[in-house]
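Notes from the 1:1 (GR / supervisor)

We went over the backlog. Supervisor wanted to see one worked example end to end before approving the batch request, so GR pasted a single chain during the call. The sequence is below; no edits were made to it. Supervisor asked that the structure be written out right there so they could see what the output format looks like.
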Amino acid sequence: MSILLDVLFLTVSLSHFGVDVLNGSKGVLLVYLSGSLGLSNTALGALSTAYTVLGSLMQPVFGYVTDRVGPRWVVAGGLLWIGTCFSLAAITPGVGALFFLVAGSLGSGAFHPAGTMQATLVGRSRFAGRETTSTSYFFMLGQVGLFLGPLLGGLLLGSLGPQGWLILTAPAFLMAFGAGIRLPAHKPVMVARPGHQETSGRKVLHTSLWILLALALMTAFRAMVQQNMNTFLPKYLSDLGYAPEVYGAIAALFMGGSALGNVLGGNLADRFGKRRVAVLTLTLTSLPLALLPAIRDLSWLYLLIPLAGAFSGASHSIIVVFAQRIIPGGMATASGLILGFMFSTGALGTLLSGYLADLWGVSIVFTFSAGLALAAAAMTGVLRDSKTAN
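Structure output shown during the call:
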């Protein structure tokens, strides 16, 4: 049976879709509320940052809880929380709406580590060790939700007003009910890793520190590449004189390529080894990025941008599975730590890249990102798949 037809996998992945539909629509609701509340652009940016940071910081905490009580109530509770908060944000008058909207990020922070752990375990235990494949499909459903969220949110607010927003939040309650029935209530059972050999305590600690550092740097460098492209690609194309519909479409192609690359990378990693696929795809990421500053022909951009997205997106699920196997503690804790770390370091990288762009122009960001991709590939070479020598 296909992973995509497994009831347990479908439960957690469709829940991911529902959570990220709301995450993706958050900006639309913020803009809608800003009209009546008179929010400045600075205030909008601060609220959006608060939403992201709060959810990111709480992911390791909810991951720790999941490792001790099981995923059922953490996933169901996260869905109920974000659904309730987003519903109240749409219908509450005044600044209270902003409080509920930002508080909704706690639901996302609860769901992601628990859901990621469960998706990985389904592939590992029920589908012959295809853990990276199942994780990649799980993230793909989330990316589809992020894509559809703004579209659906805008249509519902525009046609029906705040009451229409409740149509968007309603599925979260249904998914919470499904998670409460389907997901296991017990904490996950950790199985000994095949091929693992014990060595002296000092050597294990020394090796683990180096591997953890390599994983952290790999994750940070790749997250910076992704955030740089999302943030500065539209600006670069706008500076070249392209209309919003053009640079909007090309930016969407990068995200589409990233989603497709994530699924392909997950499948290839389970067949040929996580380290090999990550090193190869991160190295290939640097090529279209390095070429970008020299390209002015739009037809070439329509080719290079989705390629860059596919190559950079291919290692997303690989990083998460590596973290689940390398970071001490439970799988959900590791998932929360690595996902929160991705968001945080990506934001910091954007700050640095913005400074470089002000000094030497936006095109330097792509050259810098190409270097970051190569550095991420080098750090990946230090890692070892715990199941194989790949």
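Supervisor's comment: Confidence is low (pLDDT under 50) at residues 189-207.
Batch request approved.
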